[in-house]
């Protein structure tokens, strides 16, 4: 698993509009990169709505918020349209970003073990270093807690 002060793993993906996004696109600014299991599911919807609600405050603090899941661009567009989300979502359909950030892990639910995305958030500073790392995120209140972290020098 990744740790604070490590260089953030490089990524290249596409957002909901099939536009390319890479780590270098965010050089010089703070990036809040959060990984979530699936579009339009309860915890993921809470997190996406909360990040969207606070998006202007993140921007005022010099931070960009981007969500990542293995859902495709069409699923991301439907999720954004349904909830009027104001954040970009990267379609990591091949799982390369999930692997690089260590969020693709064995999970257990109701006694059944499967591989899946562990809800996780990474704050990447303007120099491409990991300023904050959290695996196993609880979506309730998480966006607000991340906002406080980017607002605190």
Automatic annotation (TrEMBL):
Its EC number is 1.11.1.24. It catalyses: a hydroperoxide + [thioredoxin]-dithiol = an alcohol + [thioredoxin]-disulfide + H2O. The keyword Lipid biosynthesis does not apply. GO terms for molecular function: thioredoxin peroxidase activity. InterPro entries: AhpC/TSA, Peroxiredoxin_AhpC-typ, Peroxiredoxin_BCP/PrxQ, Thioredoxin-like_sf, Thioredoxin_domain. The keyword Oxidoreductase applies. Keywords: Antioxidant, Disulfide bond, Oxidoreductase, Peroxidase, Redox-active center. GO terms for biological process: cell redox homeostasis; cellular response to oxidative stress. GO terms for cellular component: cytoplasm. Pfam families: AhpC-TSA. It comes from the Bacteria. Belongs to the peroxiredoxin family. BCP/PrxQ subfamily. Thiol-specific peroxidase that catalyzes the reduction of hydrogen peroxide and organic hydroperoxides to water and alcohols, respectively. Plays a role in cell protection against oxidative stress by detoxifying peroxides and as sensor of hydrogen peroxide-mediated signaling events. Monomer. This is thioredoxin-dependent peroxiredoxin. The lineage of its organism: Bacteria, Pseudomonadati, Pseudomonadota, Gammaproteobacteria, Thiotrichales.
């Amino acid at each position: 698993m990744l740790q604070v002060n490590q260089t953030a793993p490089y990524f290249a993906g596409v957002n909901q509009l099939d536009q390319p996004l890479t780590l270098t696109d965010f050089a010089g600014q703070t990036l809040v990169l959060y990984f979530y299991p699936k579009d339009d599911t309860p915890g993921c919807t809470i997190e996406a709505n909360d990040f969207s609600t606070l998006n202007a405050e993140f921007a005022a603090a010099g931070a960009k918020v981007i969500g990542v899941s293995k859902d495709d661009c069409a699923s991301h567009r439907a999720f954004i349209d349904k909830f009027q989300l104001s954040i970009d979502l990267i379609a990591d359909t091949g799982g390369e970003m999930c692997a690089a950030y260590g969020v693709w892990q064995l999970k257990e639910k109701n006694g059944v073990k499967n591989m899946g995305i562990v809800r996780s958030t990474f704050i990447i500073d303007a120099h491409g270093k990991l300023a904050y790392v959290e695996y196993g995120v609880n979506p309730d209140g998480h966006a607000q807690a991340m906002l406080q972290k980017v607002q605190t020098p």
